[in-house]
Amino acid sequence: MSSEPPDANGAAESTPSRRRAIALAVATAAVAIAAITLYARRKRTLRLATGVRDGTFYALGLALQRSLEGSGVGLTILNTGGSEENLSLLQRGAAELALSSSAVPAVEGVSLVCPIGDELAQIIVRTSANVRSPSDLVGKRVSVGPLRSGTRFAALAVLAHFGLTERSFRALSLSPTAAKEAFIRGEIDALFLLSPLRDPVVDALLARGECELLSLGAPEEVGSALDGICASAPSFQRAVIPVLSYGVAPTRPVGTVRGTTYLLARNSLSDSAVARVTEMIFRDKVRLARVDPSLARMTEQFDRGVVTYPIHVGADQHYRRAEPSFLERYSDPISLAMSLLAVAWSAMNALRTARQRARLHRLDDVHRECAELEVRSRAARTEDARRAVYEGADDLRTRVFDQLVTGKFVADDAFRILVLRLDALVARNDGVPGMALAPVPLPEPPASAETPPEDGSAEKILRTSVDDRERGG
Predict the structure, then answer these.
(1) Is 175 exposed, middle or buried (0-12, 13-18, 19+ CB in 10 A)?
(2) Same domain as 318, residue 358
(3) Rounded to 5 degrees, what are φ and ψ at 106?
């Protein structure tokens, strides 16, 4: 016969099972934590649509790629035809980030990460072509940039202000490098570039001495053609190419217009990724400025009313990171409001206390009058004396209830005791002929107050004790 209890074998068998279950749970948790950690540390790779390989957008994209190294966000550079194609890639989900010119109309589903820098409309014309204004480009061979580029949009918008269409001149869709080589070979008369100041293509051509920068209007004149271009194309603003910006050229200020290069993102791109990209861009402005010196002036404090895209939530979080919290911004008004509330609360408490004290004083005065009537009642031996006590108690009881109605008294326990005393005085002296009064009903106590038993109320007890004393007397 085994000495173990009947369930000992079952308990012994279940112990290893529980241990295995616990070990399995611990191992599962460890694997889950490791997976979450690896997921959080994995490098997120985003596709950045730039432009043609010899354009400024592509060079800028490579600089952005280097800026994000080691940040947990990588960039894959896509060379494209330019801004219009970049926006199309964003909308289709074929790219997460893109560079675009403000000259290209905005599209849906895209948000701004940051303005990268200014881009100037720069027109290089051959000196021998005898072009003194954009109107003189009629019939000339002009490179207006790749078909889907921001340069082409800007060129057609600017020239349209001077009454020129694509039929007015021979428009060639060449990349910057191809346009430079064609210009050197004498195959084109002018080329339009939308690029930052000190563009290498413009610098190389002006250095040859066979061309010049064409002014779009007098930079010092209010109401010149520059204002007209900005009025018809609000994405542009007045600008000037200063004297000797390109070495020995220009020899006089050149009036032009400028737009903005935007870094854009799909709205669906996570806020954390966009915030990280924005942070790294502004942290690495020095390296970016080596590609374009104007990027050294890139700032987070740009005019939000000028940009043509809404700001991405992730980028906005980065821009607002240093802003004080709601409590910090409104600490003074909040402190003042709290102080006023404290003063108002103290005043209310003081007023309530004063009213309570005044009520207690009035109640004490009535109790003293009631005590005087009780003394006179005990000393009364004649019918006239008892009548005077009776009338005094009745008058006092009437005044007490009048003050209860006007709010000078509260129907609390102290008031009920006073009424019981007055009722006792009336009951003691109601034997006077012609002076019997109907009892005045007492106010009902609050619902939370304890009510005396119906068969032994304080009123009945008090009346009984008064009657017993009178019979004994």
Answers:
(1) buried
(2) no
(3) -70, 155
Residues of the domain holding 117: 45-323
Q: Is the peptide bond before 250 cis (omega within 30 degrees of 0)?
A: yes
Q: Are residues 411 and 277 in the same domain?
A: no
Strand runs (DSSP E) across 29-109, as ranges?
A: 44-49, 73-78, 97-101
In the predicted model, is pLDDT for residue 56 greater than 90?
no
Q: What is the pLDDT of residues 67-83, one digit of tens each?
A: 888 777 889 999 999 99
**pLDDT tens per residue across span 285-312:** 887 787 777 777 788 888 888 888 999 9
Task: Assess contact for 129 and 65: CB atoms under 8 A.
Answer: no
The encoded tokens of residue 321 equal 């990171």
Buried-exposed string 114-151: b where 16+ CB fall within 10 A, e elsewhere:
bbbbbbbbbbbbbeeeebeebebbeebbbbbbbebbbb
Give this prediction's pTM.
0.62
* Alpha-carbon span 401 to 440, nearest angstrom: 9
216 and 277 part of one domain: yes
Q: Does position 471 have pLDDT exceeding 60, yes or no?
A: no
| CA atoms of 400 and 413, how far apart (whole Å) | 14
Q: How many domains does the chain have?
A: 2
Measure CA 464 to chain center.
75
Q: Please give the DSSP secondary-structure letter assigned to residue 107.
A: -
Q: Which of 311, 316, 310, 162 is nearest to 226 (CA)?
A: 162
Residue type, 412: D
Let me know how long the chain is.
Answer: 473
Specify the pLDDT at position 434. 43
- The answer to whether residues 220 and 270 belong to one domain is yes
Bridge-based pairing state of the strands 254-266 and 211-213: unpaired
Are 299 and 339 members of one domain?
A: no
Please give the Cα distance from 137 to 125 (Å, whole number): 9
Short-list 52, 112, 53, CA closest to 82: 52
Domain match, 87 and 107 both: yes
Cα–Cα nearest to 442, from 403, 416, 418, 463: 416
Q: Are residues 226 and 358 in the same domain?
A: no
